[in-house]
Amino acid sequence: MFGNMSIKARLILLLCSIMAVGSGVIVAAYVGFSNLQNETEDIVQRRVLLIRTVNRIMFTMQANKVEVMAALQHDPNGAVAGLHDHPVTVHFDAVVANNNKLDEYFSDFEKNTHSTEGKNLVAEFKALRNRYVSDGLLPTLALIKAGKYDEADKALLTRINPLLVAASDKGHAIAEHEDEGAQTAFRNAMDAALTAKIIMLIGMAA
User: Is the model's pTM score more than 0.85?
Assistant: First the structure.
């Protein structure tokens, strides 16, 4: 077939072949770099932010416990009650503000969690947080408002502490889950970069 072709036709065919190979290399390299970009974005923009968010949630839940402990120091029968320069309601307001922050954090968390396993973990974490509030914080604050400081002190130990530990354990599990996902995404990104590099080298050699 090629023997009947003119030199000009052969050159045109060769040029077209080279262009086709070059185009294929470019497309393959583009796909590789696109995969690299997607995996990198998954690490930086989503999973790292999720880990940061779960840490904020745990920190804010702990901060609410601290506010309860500070409120307990307003016990009029206590040795340090007269040392405060603010009413006990300051701590009640701080708990409300923290709970509002937690609602925002969980909203962002749910929105940016994609996998089924991740969504299930977030739902479990949110349920534990809600129980921490409904069965721990609110009843204890109600006791303090009623002036029942001794009962509130016991509630801190028997309600707030164990509920906070359970919620924190779930938060740590989520952080580990996202960290493992970030490591997987990083390995995928490195594989995509290596593939794109090999394809480019093949294209240059061709």
Answer: no
Tokens 């320069």 map to which residue? 85
CB 174 within 8 A of CB 14: no
pLDDT tens-digit readout, 63-87: 999 999 999 999 998 888 788 889 9
- CA torsion 70-94-64-128 (nearest 10°) is 150
- Angle ∠(161,167,170) on CA atoms, nearest 5: 140
User: Using CA atoms, how far apart are residues 127 and 191, in angstroms rounded to an integer?
Assistant: 38
Phi and psi at 57, nearest 5°, equal -60, -50
Best CA proximity match to 126, nearest among 147, 103, 145, 144? 103
